[in-house]
Specification:
Elements (H helix, E strand, L loop, with lengths): L12 H10 L2 H13 L7 E11 L5 E6 L8 E3 L10 H20 L13 E6 L41 H9 L1 H20 L11 E10 L5 E10 L14 H14 L2 E5 L3 E5 L5 E7 L8 E2 H12 L49 H14 L23 E3 L7 H19 L10 E12 L3 H27 L1
Parallel strand pairs: 9-10
Antiparallel strand pairs: 1-2, 1-3, 1-12, 4-6, 4-9, 5-6, 5-11, 7-8
Protein name: Replication initiation protein
Organism: Streptomyces sioyaensis
InterPro entries: RepSA
Length: 478
């Protein structure tokens, strides 16, 4: 006589959780819907609370949502991190918003008039100078200076040929002052344009307005450089045409001349005088509606390029994606009473720099940030706070005020659309619906998924990645 068959019990907590939820199909669908709503976000925020839609006149609740009705007792909210290395799902949304922001400044839309397409536009790249020769890939036939043909994934790429003579201090100071160099560049650019027009610098704003949107990118050697869309408008911004003499060629020439003339001298008792400037590789290419054979770029290609790099950080150089200073003492190494901080033993380091799992070149850049940050003349730079960013302190994506719409405005529009969709599903839209108001209260519970939710999130990520791959393949075959 055979023993009755038994259902095997999984040893996986994730599978056990999903099996328990599957016993109540309604609960499973609720959890699955939450995970899909955050698009498989890597570390979603967990909230508890409620939101209620009320009649503004009587205060009567017309619709109430509370996490008490959820199987897990909480709501998942996407983390919203822009960096692809931290959260690919949220970074794709950030990239999409950046794409529309950049594209609107090139072709119109999002409160920008379509006539902006006739304004001169240039895609500019400003790079860092040399701080010493590094391993690179100059060409398929030509070897690196070291005599080796490096593979694309060779970890030696971007590292100094001679670390002893490499100017690590100059590299860190350049990154720390990249924002100041950009500001000085825009000042010089206005001067060159005013000189070309034969007007005084004080009259520039009454004739022309300079608008731009830029993104920072790290080279393999750890130096920051900028990609920027630069546009010339009339005095009222994108709604007014620039003067006839303002052409893409004039703008490109002015960009090259302005960048070449920027100098920023840093004085230090310990290091002496350091002159900071942009590198020799300055590129300025006109932007047109379509890709041209004469070196021009299409507006779609530029918007996609900028959006791509808006989601990247210093991690492309092999550094870490989190701050390295001790949180309790905020990197000072001392407590409020002047005694040594116990967690970091007075070093200010959140983790010993010598134990960081990074390449030697990156560790030396981080160590240089730390040492320079201790000098009184560089205290205002907060280099120990930005050591994991190799000294760069600025935002990765910025724009001038009148270039186009803002990321905040795009998010507000999306939020309003979702609100209207939710009210339509609840039947709260129509001529007979009273004036509505919202009341809510939320509390932070934690971050991340349960094991079962993580399994569902992995499936969502894989499905979305496959959908994107198929979309890209379809576009490439057209």
């Amino acid at each position: 006589m055979h023993a009755p068959a038994t259902t095997p019990i999984s040893h996986s907590p994730a599978v056990r959780e999903l099996l328990a939820l599957a016993a109540d199909g309604d609960a499973f669908h609720h959890v699955q819907a939450q995970v899909e709503h955050v698009a498989g976000c890597t570390r979603p925020v967990q909230l508890t609370g409620y939101t209620a839609t009320l009649d503004a006149t009587t205060g009567e609740p017309l619709s109430v949502y509370t996490t008490a009705d959820e199987p897990t007792g909480r709501l998942l909210l996407a983390c919203g991190n822009r960096r692809a290395s931290v959260c690919p799902a949220c970074s794709r949304l950030y990239a999409a918003d950046t794409y529309h922001l950049i594209r609107a400044g090139l072709t119109g839309g999002k409160s920008v008039p379509d006539t902006v397409t006739t304004h001169p536009k240039v895609f500019a790249t400003l790079t860092a100078p040399s701080f010493g020769p590094v391993h690179n890939r100059p060409g398929n036939l030509k070897p690196c200076r070291c005599g080796t043909h490096h593979a694309a994934n060779d970890p030696a790429l971007g590292t100094p040929l001679d670390p002893v003579t490499y100017d690590y201090c100059g590299a860190v100071l350049f990154n720390a002052h990249a924002g100041a160099l950009w500001h000085r560049f825009t000042v010089y650019l206005r001067r060159h344009l005013a000189q070309h027009a034969g007007i005084k610098r004080s009259e520039f704003a009454s004739v022309l307005r300079l608008s731009f949107a830029k993104v920072a990118e790290y080279q393999k050697r750890g130096a920051v450089h900028f990609h920027a869309v630069v546009r010339l408008d009339g005095p009222d911004g994108p709604t007014s045409p620039p003067p006839a003499w303002a052409t893409p060629a004039v703008l490109a020439d002015a960009i090259t001349a302005a960048a070449a003339g920027v100098r920023l001298v840093i004085e230090s008792d310990a290091l002496g005088s350091h002159e900071l400037a942009w590198g020799d590789q300055i590129d300025a290419r006109p932007i047109t509606a379509t890709l041209g054979a004469d070196g021009t770029l299409s507006d779609a290609a530029v918007a996609g390029y900028v959006a791509k790099y808006a989601t990247k950080g210093a991690e492309a150089t092999g550094t870490l994606d989190h701050a390295l200073y001790c949180v309790p003492c905020k990197g000072s190494g001392q407590r409020s009473d002047g005694s040594h901080c116990r967690p970091c033993h007075g070093s200010g380091e959140g983790q010993p720099l010598r134990h960081l799992v990074v390449e030697r070149h990156v560790r030396q850049l981080i160590r240089t940030c730390w040492h320079l940050g201790q000098l009184p003349e560089f205290e205002h730079l907060g280099l120990w706070r930005s050591a994991h960013m190799l000294g760069y302190r600025g935002h990765f994506s910025t724009k001038s005020r009148r270039y186009s719409t803002t990321l905040g405005a795009l998010r507000d529009t999306r939020r309003q659309w979702r609100t209207e969709q939710a009210r339509e599903r609840l039947g709260l839209i129509g001529p007979d619906i009273p004036t509505l108001t919202t009341e809510s209260a939320w509390a932070y519970l934690g971050t991340g998924y349960t094991p079962g939710e993580e399994l569902l999130a992995a499936t969502v990520r894989r499905n979305r990645a496959n959908a994107l791959r198929l979309k890209d393949e379809g576009e490439q075959s057209e």
